[in-house]
Amino acid sequence: MLSYVLAGLGLGSIYAIAAGSLVITYVASGIFNLAFAAMAYSVARFYYFLLVEEDWAIIPAAIVSLFVFAPALGMFLYAVLFRHLRLRSTLVKLMATVGLSVALPPLINLWLEQPTDPTAPGLAPRPLATYDIFGSTINADQLATYIGLVVVLIVGVGLLRFTNVGLKVRALVDSEALTSLSGTSPGRVSLGVWAASATLAGLAGILIAPTAGLSVGSMTFLMSAAFAAVVAAKLRSLPLAVGVALLMGVATNVVQKYIDPSSDFGAAVVPSIPFAFMLLFLLFYALRGQAGDLVAGGALDRAIATQGGDPSVVSAVTGGSNRLILNPGVLAGVIFVGIVAFMPGMLDRFWSGLLAGGIAIAIALLSYTLVTGEGGMVWLSQITFAGGGAVLAAELVRNYEWDPLVAVLLGAVFIVPVGVIIGLLTIRLGNLYVALVTLTFGSLIQTLVFARDPFYNFGSGQPMPRPEFATTNDDFAYLGLAVFVILAILIVNVRRSTAGLAMSAVRFSENGAKTLGISVVQTKVLVSGLATYTAAVGGGFIAMNAGSTLPDSFNPTGGLVWLAVLVTMGARSNIAALIAGIMFVMMPQVFSTYVSHDYADVPIILFGLGALGLALHPEGVVIQTGNNIMKLFGRGRRTKAVVPPGTPGASGPSAHESGDVDATPGSPVSVEKITAGGQA
Amino acid sequence: MTTSESTSLLQVQHLAVRYGAAQSLFDVSIDIPVNSALAVLGSNGAGKSTLARALSGLVPPSGGRVIFDGKDISKWSPTKIRRAGLVHLPEGRGVFPALTVMENLRMALTTQRGGKDASLDHAFELFPVLGQRRKQLAGTLSGGEQQMLSLARALMVSPKLVIADEMSLGLAPKLVDVVFESLGKMREAGVAVLMIEQFASRALAFADQAIILQRGTVTWAGRAEDAGEELLHAYLGGATAA
Question: Are residues A232 and A364 in the same domain?
Fold first, then answer.
């Protein structure tokens, strides 16, 4: 038993370092760092580069990686990204960190190349020494992990509790504005917090690499498991996060004493333990109504904050026209769909196959347009619903000999209740909790369903034929485009319907919507159901295009890339979804074919960077470009803008009206006529 | 430098402030000489707190200049402005609620090189109740005690100018007296005070000069003693002028 507990403490220690770092950076900066895994991978990859590829000794490699490279990475990311995000909406913060998680690993791989051996050494010398503790054996890697956690806790708690630096960090947690009014630069404190966070991420990455492997996927799984501890800590209690993380690690290993992890049952149960913890704590907090998003800063911080730049809100405010005919948005859509419709006949078989794949993904991306663009919710499990649609449709075809298209369209209906249940469970939670729960749900389904036989089938999944009338790439592309257009029209109509208006009202202000008598639950469930159906249909089309379900292609990590591509193009535009889907599939191949195979990941980096750009342009590339074009056409006939009544800032005198008033107390102004001006 | 700049501690010239699309201040000009007090009066939404925030660097001006102690601080950060000697006590209990009383006071001393113990002793001497509650979280103090803590954070660091934004808001009359006594002590120590206050009559009795803000513009400015009751009623209404 002791050996299981000791092994569990090793795993729990890594969870604890990750969870502790996530909590500290969240409370200090208001940003939940979804790019933690990407940062962990980046530092671990750099350590591997120094240790293995450059033959450095362990200690200098660790010192340079953890205390030079990692802090420099953290400070750089703060300077270019995180400092712009503090007072942004949760949606923008999450999207930006999703973008970072997408862009950073391929950037590192572009620089250092993919690791040659995914089983990287940790901080202990090889061959691994073993130690006997009370009759149980632990290896040097485990010992390094324990020491790592103890050092982190002692140094971390000591710094936070007993030093001026810690005092400033805790002050910053309370209020950035008040901290600056006290003469302490919040920027410098945040810089230090992000440097420390990157160091902790790197430490977790280096420690997990020997057992889980040096890959983004393994780091993402680690992060997803650490989320459970973070949720248990309600995102803000460091001791609780560390305690639950250790408990999860121990539970995960102790269970293996009683359940054979190599059995089917064991293989399903063991990786699910962190997610079971999360579910339990979530239900507990949700039932007690204690799971809302943390509001960054104090009253003063909120008073000086301006519009948060939520993409689902901003584009609703700035974009759009109510004209049915000659509406620029509709015109652009028709033109772009027309161009895509011409493409299959002009491309060879290979490229038209890619185009069909891009259109299939575009269908799935429409689910984000619904749930994020219309519903204002950050769901990270749309790719899982797509995978569910693919797997279920393939099973219906394989076991019941349904027609593939019917299996996709009707099978998707059976996935809808899953989305609705998740929607119902998370509706009372804050946006951040929703993101964490859906990402964790995706990881769980990947482990419990997609990676299990008969669905996995050595990675190729089950066969999923195309409909008999659309077996060629060209025909299938047309079929996909037709389904995309139908769903897009449906979304446009939903947007214009009473239910769509209710969605808009809920997106702008839930409390305001409630005062109008709108049911927030009903509205969000409707969006959840529609989005889940759309994702499942998209998944079915992806599988039909590939001829097989390919379960690995529905990994939640891939879902982050999908989302990054979509928000780069625009979260509320149907055409943006079509462009995003096609670019997602075709751009890497374009780079690989016409530039160099080494640069195939460059588009992914660009998509990630595009999502980072959300902090500056929340409306996305498509809407932004459309607005620029409209400005170009409208330049010659621009007239003075009429400010509608009630517009903020519309009241008050113009500069010339008050420009000649000298109100210096030493020389009192003479005011011709004093009126109460409605202020009494 | 003009003559008026050389005698002024704070000179605000044609200041304008925007919150996104909304403009809150229009062409505000004020002048605070060394060791003087200016009362800023106005009804809700007039732009008083925005003026305070713009002077302390919390919100950037969209136009105009702010000269403090001979230097143009219009584009300075709040941290740099605080270090230059301008202390802003914001509206609504300007304390760190999750830090203890002692930690709040230590935060106020982060810019001070030496004599920190003496400054802390001075704060506890001025407000003995804070000494008794030094290990208590500031968020658990009463409203009056939080204002004392806020005032202590300003009094212990010898600033050149203090901006006191609605310090008496929501306090019992006795505690309002404490606030005004504390601000009086600041003036005795040579500190200039910009006071934003709901109790217009008390503010005018305290200050040398006064301005009235209305919808983001200065609609009256002059000596505090010249601001008669009729004027205050016209601008502020009966309730606030009381």
Answer: no
The 10s digit of each residue's pLDDT in B162-173 is: 999 988 887 788
State the pLDDT at residue B174.
83
Alpha-carbon distances of A299 from A174, A450, B92, rounded to whole Å: 10, 46, 8
Does some domain include residue A346?
Answer: no
Residue of B nearest to A658 (CA): B27
Q: What is the pLDDT of residue A110?
A: 85
Alpha helices, DSSP H only, in A113-163? 140-162
Whether the link from the prior residue into A127 is cis, omega within 30° of 0, is yes
Contact yes or no for A175 and B78 at CB 8 A: no
Which of B6, B59, B79, B229 to mutate against chain A (most A CBs within 10 Å)? B79
Nearest CA-CA partner of A451 in A220, A272, A268, A640: A268
Select from A42, A29, A26 the least CA-distant residue to A199. A42
Q: Which of A274, A240, A564, A229 is nearest to A441 (CA)?
A: A274
Tell me: do A360 and A480 sit in the same domain.
yes
Partner B contacted by A641 (CB < 8 A): no
Q: What type of residue sits at position B175?
A: L
Domain boundaries, chain B: 3-241
Chain A residues close to B98, C-beta within 8 Å: 170, 173-174
Taking contacts as CB-CB distances below 8 angstroms, the residues of chain B near A175 are 96
A36 and A161 co-located in one domain: yes
Domain span at residue A186?
A: 2-263
A175 touches B at CB < 8 Å:
yes
Whether residue A668 lies within 8 A of chain B, CB to CB, comes out as yes
Give me the sign of the Cα torsion angle A28, A372, A629, A587.
positive
Q: Is A604 inside a domain boundary? A: yes
Q: What is the CATH number of the domain that holds A414?
A: 1.10.3470
A316: in domain: no
CA distance B162 to chain A (A): 12
Taking the CA of residue A183 and the nearest CA in chain B, the distance in Å comes to 4
Residue A573 tokens read as 């535009």
Q: Which residues does chain B have within 8 Å of residue A665's beta carbon, measured at their own beta carbons? A: 30-32, 38, 208-211, 221-223
pTM (2 d.p.)? 0.78
- Average pLDDT score over residue span B21-32: 89
Q: Which of B32, B110, B226 is best to mutate for the A interface (most A CBs within 10 A)?
A: B110
What ipTM did this prediction achieve?
A: 0.89
User: Is residue A293 a contact partner of residue A247, using CB atoms and an 8 Å limit?
Assistant: no
**How distant is the alpha carbon of residue A551 from its chain centre?**
20
Contacts of B231 in chain A (CB under 8 A): 674
pLDDT attached to residue A386: 95
Cβ contact A177–B23 (<8 Å): no
Task: Report yes or no on A643 lying in a domain.
Answer: no
Cβ pairs A/B, distance under 8 A: 175
Q: What is the pLDDT of residue A616?
A: 59
Chain B residues close to A83, C-beta within 8 Å? none
Contacts of residue B202, Cβ cutoff 8 Å, sequence gap at least 6: B168, B176, B180
Question: Which residues does chain A have with pLDDT short of 70?
Answer: 86-87, 289-298, 302, 305-329, 614-680
C-alpha torsion sign, points A670, A672, A675, A679: negative
Tell whether A164 lies on the interface with B, counting CB pairs under 8 A.
yes
Rounded Cα–Cα distance for residues B146 and B138 (Å): 7
Same domain, A246 and A391: no
Q: What angle do CA A495, A501, A502 make, to 5 degrees?
A: 120
Q: Mean pLDDT throughout B63-84?
A: 92
Question: Of A229, A263, A297, which residue is a domain's last?
Answer: A263
Q: What is the pLDDT of residues B185-212, one digit of tens each?
A: 888 888 999 999 877 888 888 999 999 9
Question: Residues 71-110, chain A: which have Cβ within 8 Å of B?
Answer: none
Report whether CATH 3.40.50.300 matches the domain B3-241: yes
Specify the residue for token string 């929703």: A434
